[in-house]
Automatic annotation (TrEMBL):
Signal peptide interval: none
Every ABC transporter domain range: 2-246
A Pfam family it matches: ABC_tran
Keyword Isomerase on entry: no
PANTHER family the UniProt entry points to: AMINO ACID IMPORT ATP-BINDING PROTEIN (PTHR43166), PHOSPHONATES IMPORT ATP-BINDING PROTEIN PHNC (PTHR43166:SF6)
Alphabetized GO MF terms: ATP binding
The name this protein goes by in its record: Phosphonates import ATP-binding protein PhnC
Keyword field: ATP-binding, Cell membrane, Membrane, Nucleotide-binding, Translocase, Transport
InterPro entries to which the protein is assigned, alphabetical: AAA+_ATPase (IPR003593), ABC_transporter-like_ATP-bd (IPR003439), ABC_transporter-like_CS (IPR017871), ABC_transpr_PhnC (IPR012693), MetN_ABC_transporter-like (IPR050086), P-loop_NTPase (IPR027417)
């Protein structure tokens, strides 16, 4: 279970971009985060794996408080958080298998990684997952020889090789054509069920969020203002999520504070 309580993020001395957020994700649900540009969606995901340092508040993953971890403990906790990126973040000159095995980096020795001496069980697992997502025949191909959809499948397998307790996806389909985008969303949904994994997806495409996710969280300027099933996301809720400006929101904040 992921339990976020009273999370605040402020970059430098600016206004907070996450304002006392509470969010709990239990079990294997697929949750999308929607909201206008600048609402804080990426910041929220990046606080969870500490690519961004939260200013205050608590983030617990299956009982482990993530915000206070350092060094070795932080690295161990990060292994349990798989991340899928918009731009795939693959190493182009490495093969698909090498990219996929980089998901095991935290688990095997540096020597084994440098010498590409992957444990047999990791190779077996990589093939299982690559078969599952349809890229096993590309195992020895360089990553830069693949299409966008194939590259994102490599990104998904690499994240799953971490044996994660949660999967975070930051605009995973934003660089893909509509058909491929739907395939990747379907894959994330199906894998969540098969692997009993909660998946949290930052996504701009509301239609895909409605089709492929179980729950939609709507953010507006650092706050969660909608959290419900896709069916409940009506026009009124959409207007609230996507209307206004940070300036208007700041006026509301000032009123609340006074
Ligand atoms: N490294 C940073 N330093 C300063 N401000 C930042 C930084 N990263 C993000 N911000 C600001 O934080 C706010 C939220 O940004 P964030 O990227 O989380 O929003 P988002 O909802 O993911 O937007 P988008 O959909 O456009 O990616 C924005 O006002 C942005 O300018």
């Amino acid at each position: 279970m992921l339990k976020i309580t009273d999370l605040v993020k402020r970059y430098g001395k600016g206004d907070p971009v996450l304002k006392n957020l509470d969010l709990t994700i239990e079990g294997e649900s697929v949750v999308s985060i929607i909201g206008s540009s600048g609402a804080g969606k990426s910041t929220l995901l990046r606080c969870i794996n500490r690519l961004v340092e939260p200013t205050s508040g608590s983030i617990e993953l299956n009982g482990t408080e993530l915000t206070t971890l350092h060094g070795r403990e932080l690295r161990a906790a990060r292994r349990k958080i798989g991340m899928v990126f918009q731009s795939f973040n693959l190493v182009d000159r490495l093969t698909v298998m090498e990219n996929v095995q980089s998901g095991r980096l935290g688990y095997i020795s540096t020597w084994a990684a440098v010498m590409r001496r992957y444990p047999k069980k990791d190779i077996r697992r990589a093939y299982e997952l690559m078969e599952r997502v349809g890229i096993a025949h590309y195992a020895d191909k360089r990553a830069d020889e693949l299409s966008g959809g194939e590259r994102q499948r490599v990104g998904v397998v690499r994240a799953l090789m971490q044996d994660p307790e949660i999967l975070l996806a930051d605009e995973p389909t934003a660089s893909l054509d509509p058909k491929t985008s739907e395939q990747i969303m379907g894959l994330l949904r199906d894998l969540a069920g098969e692997l009993k994994l909660p998946v949290l997806i930052n996504i701009h495409n509301v239609t895909e969020a409605k089709i492929y996710t179980d729950r939609i969280v709507g953010m507006r300027y650092g706050r969660i203002i909608f959290d419900d099933t896709p069916d409940s996301l009506d026009q009124e809720a959409m207007d609230q999520i996507y209307s206004g400006s940070p300036h208007a929101d700041r006026k509301t904040d000032m009123k609340e504070a006074s």
